[in-house]
Structure formats: C-alpha cells, structure tokens
TrEMBL record:
The chain crosses the membrane at residues 43-62, 68-89. It comes from the Bacteria. Keywords: Membrane, Transmembrane, Transmembrane helix. This is Integral membrane protein. It comes from Streptomyces griseoviridis.
Amino acid sequence: MRAVRAVLRHQARLFGSLPPWVRARQPASGGVEFGYAKGQGPMLFGFAFAGLVETVTMAVLLRHHPVAHLVMLVLDVYGVLFVVALHAASVVRPHLLDGGTLRVRRAAQPELPVPLADIASVRQELRATHTRADGELDLVVGAQTSVTLELVHPVPYFTSLGRRQEVRLVRFHADDAGAVVRAVERARGALSPLPSDPVG
C-alpha cells in the first residue's frame, strides 16, 4: 500500500508540473535555484515525437479493431504526456539552496533535503558512468552527473516507491555545476564564521 501511495504522489507531482511549465512560470521558492534540464530537452522531445508517430501509425493499423485501437491510443497518449511531463517537472523543480538546506531534485522523484551541516565536501565532477553501490545515490540527467556531495553521516532518502535508503554520497547534475559548488561552499562558510579576535 505504501508503494501505491508513493507512485500516486509521483504521478501527481509529474503531471502537476505541466500547468506551471506551460505558463512558463515556476512556483515561488524563496531560495537559490539551480536548473538541470537544459541538456535533456531535445532528447525527451525526440521521444515524444516518436510517440506521436507511433500513435498515428497504430491508429492506421488498428482502424478495423476499435477495442485494440482504443487501448493503444490511451497507452500512446499517456506515454507522450509522460515524457513531456518529465521535462516539465525537471524545469519547475530545480535544485534549491534554501536557508541551511540543499534540496537535490530530479524531475518528479522525491527530493533529497541535505542539511549544509551534514556536507563534508562538495565538488564539481563530471561522470558519465555510474555503478550501483550501497550508500550512494546517483540522480542522473542526460546520462551524467556533474556535482558530488560527500556527507558527514548518512541521510535518509525515500525512492519513488517509498523505499527508504541511507545515502552518504550523492551525485547529481546541474546545468552550471560550478555555481552550485560555489554557492554551497559560501553557504557552508556562513554557517561556521571565523571566531572573532579576543579582546586584549
């Protein structure tokens, strides 16, 4: 039941991203945003176009089979809308540096809130290959990640199916990875100001 609720929340976030994306307006966040959708747009819209071609092709092939035609039409339309909504969610749900927390996101997946105090190091690191390892989370966009966070201790992350996992290293993509690293380092520095000079 938990997995079903998690999937429904995921779908709600996904398709709920379409209206603000169509209006070219992002929800007010109050923090510093970092986009990550720039490079994936052409690829996803290519998939959407292929889905449209398939929809038309199946409509012609199944024109004498109304039930099968209806089933395929629903599936094809859902597939096209899913791909477009995936891009929309990536645009309207950027990474967010808000106060003392970095909220790492990827489309409609649950976000990972990382307290700045729990970050041991942050670096710009472009990776195109990723292997599964315990305690590591790879939020890949366009088959790559460009920022790596090492954490002081594991933090919880809930997958799209509601499963909890503890992560101690996070890799994610940002259009301007350098800006993310600089902003996080500045924010971390502000949390630990240098001690003032002792009064003589």
